[in-house]
Write a structure and sequence with these properties.
It contains four helices and five strands; from the N terminus they run E-H-E-H-E-E-H-E-H. It has helices at residues 24-35, 59-68, 97-105, 124-135; strands spanning 6-14, 41-45, 72-79, 85-88, 111-113. It is an alpha+beta fold and 136 residues long. Strand 3 and strand 4 (85-88) form a beta hairpin. The two termini are 18 Å apart. The chain has one domain. The relative contact order is 0.18. It has a five-stranded antiparallel beta sheet with strand order 2-1-3-4-5. Residues 34-90 are annotated as: Disordered.
């Protein structure tokens, strides 16, 4: 989702790193959290109105690096390459890395939103086409 879809929302929760070291940014972030006795950092990142975000080495990428290492969870909303809006919910967060990895293995619902056509209804063919792309 982060590399091929246009993000319109990125939700996350992360905890300080221990004992690994990731990027300099994440190391500073983790040390700052520890200094202030912060157990978790959670948030929602959004683009400017009408825009989209991308994971290009900034806040989204750095936070996702912590998530990928097991120190958090993430989810979000984005436009797929075909223009469909999809939502991937954030899994339940645990302070334990192993539990975070296990939580990601559980089934999650991918939610896809459809725009109504000119007649006020979404065509069955459009819904089927989109679902086949994701699951077929």
């Amino acid at each position: 989702m982060l590399t091929t879809w246009e993000l319109i929302q990125y939700d996350y929760v992360v905890r300080p790193l221990n004992p690994i070291r990731l990027s300099d940014y994440n190391e500073m972030r983790s040390e700052a959290m520890k200094a202030d006795k912060v157990a978790t950092d959670s948030g929602r990142l959004r683009p400017a109105k009408g825009g989209t975000m991308a994971a290009n080495g900034g806040s989204v990428s750095e936070t996702q690096e912590m998530v990928d290492a097991g120190y958090g969870q993430s989810g979000g909303r984005a436009y797929t390459p075909d223009g469909d809006e999809a939502r991937v919910p954030k899994p339940k967060f645990h302070m334990d890395k192993a539990k975070n990895f296990a939580e990601r293995e559980k089934p999650r619902f991918l939610k896809i939103m459809f725009e109504d056509g000119d007649d006020g209804a979404t065509s069955r063919q459009e819904i089927a086409r989109t679902l086949i792309k994701f699951y077929g």
